[in-house]
Amino acid sequence: MGGPNNSPIIQNPLQFNTIQELIAAVLNLIVTLGTPLLVLAFVYVGFLFVHARGNEQELSKAKQAFFWTVIGAALVLGAFVISEVIQNTISQLQ
After folding, report:
1. Residue 35 in contact with residue 76, Cβ under 8 Å?
2. CB proximity list for 41: less than 8 A, separation 6 or greater
3. CA–CA dist 71, 78 (Å, integer)
4. What is the pLDDT of residues 31-71, one digit of tens each?
5. Which of 1, 47, 48, 50 could form a disulfide with 62 if both were Cys (CB 3.0 to 4.6 A apart)?
6. How far apart are CA 54 and CA 4, in angstroms?
7. What's the chain look like in SS3?
8. pLDDT tens for residues 25-38?
């Protein structure tokens, strides 16, 4: 099982032929897994706001959780945008 001059051939264990395809697949996985988690996080933050019932300490906790959930949503959306840009660039180059 050798190539030219009897050198060993290394087989690609992944289904991706380029690093761009691998990055796009990883980013798509992040978006696929992150979206349901974000929905659950927003529901949890909603429960935190309802549970706070005007208590300043609990409202502060709920606001902080909301802030970080929005940051997470921005990261997932950013991963989606980067994935789309990479896929469109690859398709235009081919």
Report:
1. yes
2. 65, 69, 72
3. 10
4. 899 999 999 999 999 999 999 998 999 999 999 999 999 99
5. 48
6. 75
7. CECHHHCECCCCCCCCCCHHHHHHHHHHHHHHHHHHHHHHHHHHHHHHHHHHCCCHHHHHHHHHHHHHHHHHHHHHHHHHHHHHHHHHHHHHHC
8. 888 888 899 999 99
pTM, whole model, 2 decimals? 0.72
Q: Is the dihedral of CA 51, 54, 57, 61 positive or negative?
A: positive
Q: How far is CA 48 from CA 21, 27, 56, 93, in A?
A: 40, 30, 12, 48
Taking CA atoms, 80 is separated from 38, 45, 90, in Å, by: 14, 23, 15
Q: Decide: 61 and 52 in contact? Cβ < 8 Å.
A: yes
Q: Which residues contact 84 (CB under 8 A, 6 or more apart)?
A: none
Contact between residue 16 and residue 28 where contact means Cβ atoms under 8 Å apart: no
